[in-house]
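Data availability (excerpt). The following record was deposited with the supplementary files.
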Amino acid sequence: MTRVDRRMTFLSSAIYFAEYIGRYNLAAAMSEMTDAFTAGNAKAMLGLALTLMAISYGVGQIVMGFVGDRVPPRFVVFAGLLGAGACNLAVGLSTNLVVICVAWFINGVCKSMIWPSLIRQMTCDMSETGFHRGILWVSVASNLGIVLVYLAVVPVSILIFSWRLAFWFAGAVEIAAGVAWVLSVRTIPSVGLLKRALRDGAKEPDGTDDGKSEKSFKLFPVLFAASIPLLYLVVICHGLLRDGLTSWMPTLLRDTYHLDSVAAIMSSAILPIFSTVCVIFAGMLFLKLKNEMTASAIFWAITLASLGGLTFAIGRSAILTIVLLAFAMSGIQGVNHILTTRVPHRFAYAGMVSTIAGLLNSATYIGAAISGYGIALFSDAHGWHATVIAWLSVAVLGTVALVFCFAKWKRFTSEHQ
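Predicted structure:
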């Protein structure tokens, strides 16, 4: 990696680390917040807040993906971090569940500004090798952010003050990260794959170019050539499972094994710890296979096996339940790393990195929107064993849909090496 690659990797990792601290704190604090609010519908309302954020984030990803290919990404990321920080501060100050739902909805809009523009900035500034190594550490940083939330930020906040402190801390971190980003990234030269692709003739998505070529790419032919519509379904399934497992594990453990809130939250820290190891393995596996679909299939198999075992373990052993949930989450995070970070880079030739990143990440949060409120209602009505069976069914659907992407993706990647 070059000096520029290392600088951009560190900066991007720090940004995504901060962004995740202000994203998963509500999920981690949910059981404690449910007890703090006396309203009988507190659990459902907080589940609704997760759903609203997932909807706004998912829809926002589509919009901000297009914006990120047209507006300087450093300003888009900066605005997103400042807005997200303000929303976290608002939740920490609020005593009204409706206000929390509104703030978390706006938080999703702000956070949707970050990922598409961040990955575009990395593609502009980093070498090919630097990007593939750097994006691995960005994914690791996001998992470390979740670990910090579940293992330190929320439990410590509850122990020394209340759950509110977790939101004040997250807000301050995100605002500081936004200021650091906008001041630092302007000093990094753009020499990466996307910049070279545009210089060599690919038009910007708004139709502009450097005057050297009339080469341009239409969005929908590119999407269908790469089987992105079917891949969209795969990512929806993975998003439902990823956010479902992350958001609801503390509540599942508390309801099933009667753990107290702090113990349940800290037990959930095993998910991102396992996931961090799996993301590193996913990056190494991709660099060896050079095929996103094959690598994703391997991680779907891990998820299927783990959820299959969980259908028998839940209610019998807390330790085995935690371990199987951790392995299931590891498989899902492997799928997430491959499909949402590696796939968009393939579209640098067409100047559509931010657009594809936004589209695929929007699918993740359509799944998350279903899991947020849907799991609250489903688990209340049918119990956690039935919920695990539903998760397994979603994993089967995602795996089958992925298999049907193989042929088109092979042709697409062979044409655009």
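Summary of structural features: The chain has one domain: 3-415.
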